[in-house]
Amino acid sequence: MDIGGLKKMALEEIDKAIDLVGLDNVYKKYLGKKGEIASFFGSLKNLPEKDRKEVGRCLNSFKKLLEEKIKIKEQEFKKSLKLFKNNKLDVSIPGKKIKTGHLHPLTLVKRRAENIFGEMGFSIAQGPEIEDEWHNFDALNIPKNHPARDMWDTFWLKNGKLLRTHTSPVQIRYMKKNNPPIRIIVPGRIFRHEATDASHEINFYQLEGLMIDKDISISNFKAIIQEFFSRFFNKVIEARLRPSFFPFTEPSFEVDMSCVVCEGTGCSVCSSTGWIEIMGAGMVHPNVLKAGGLIPRQKAKDTGWQGFAFGIGLDRLTMMKYKIDDIRLLYSGDIRFLKQF
């Protein structure tokens, strides 16, 4: 007759009861006319006479304990039920929405851009944010004392390295480790030592693109970038190229896209031109291909490689996508701002 084991099991079932019905079932199981305790009392006659008194005393004590525990639990349930009725809870009313975290708008735009380029066959490449001078400048056809270095206000470190000023060094690192054809994008953070205002930050995000193959042309670039913008903004976007200069591309060009607000008819956003300057691009300079370990194509029948590269600010895309007028909001950590996305 294991009274101790039965007591433990009964107390556990009382604790697990979640309503009056469940509690009543526990009562019937242990304290009912045909319950466990009644069964134990019925078996007392089978015990030696000297043990009956002690076992009977233990059963009465056990029975009293269960009755007290069940009564306390019953009062708790009835009190909760009373509060429920007094509050007149309407269970048909939707509950309060649980607050959840928000993805940063930069993260949303970065993921969207990665998905679009991924659908067009581009892979994602990464590189270090602390770079050496060779990868950040020299390998990109920007040697020491080259005037083009003035285009980037660089954060130099005491060990001679620097915080990368663009994501272009990843081009070199990728070309040296992978054979063409190459089709990659490089999303990442870059750093510029410049004054902070509504359109400038010392730390921002860029999306680099590189495509290398035998017969890649500017037409390929224009088609790909127009397709990207059209998918990103969910409307037909036109792109135009204007001559420019970047040391790592030749020819180089600035890329304008048709205004997403007025669709090219002219408005205050595009200064009534119908176009918005959005990115820089060009055909990869032969010196950059050589630095990456590739043989550049010189003539139409050459067996060398050629391709295009481009760089676009993810911050700028984010501001255009969500109509944000101050880049500093993206890095403010203001929860009121982030809750909008």
Describe it.
By secondary structure, the protein is an alpha+beta fold. The protein has two domains: 3-87; 105-338, Bira Bifunctional Protein, Domain 2 (BirA Bifunctional Protein, domain 2, 2-Layer Sandwich). It contains eleven helices and ten strands. A seven-stranded mixed β-sheet has the order 1-5-6-10-9-8-7, sandwiched between helices. A hairpin with a 5-residue loop joins β3 and β4. α1 (3-16) packs parallel to α4 (49-87), α2 packs antiparallel against α4 and α5 (105-119) crosses α10. It is elongated.
CATH class of the largest domain: Alpha Beta
CATH architecture of the largest domain: 2-Layer Sandwich
Overall mean confidence score, pLDDT:
85
User: What is the share of helical residues?
Assistant: 25-40%
Query: How would a textbook summarize the main sheet?
Result: 7 strands, mixed
Record keyword descriptors for this entry:
elongated; BirA Bifunctional Protein, domain 2; 40% helix; 10 strands; 341 residues; 2 domains; alpha+beta; 7-stranded mixed sheet; 11 helices
Fold topology:
Layout: H1 3-16, H2 20-31, H3 36-42, H4 49-87, H5 105-119, E1 123-124, E2 130-131, H6 133-136, E3 155-156, E4 162-163, H7 169-177, E5 182-191, E6 203-213, H8 218-233, E7 239-246, E8 249-258, E9 275-284, H9 286-291, E10 306-313, H10 314-322, H11 335-338
Helix pairs in contact: 1-4, 2-4, 5-10
Task: Write a compact overview of the structure shown.
By secondary structure, the protein is of the alpha+beta class. It is built from eleven helices and ten strands.
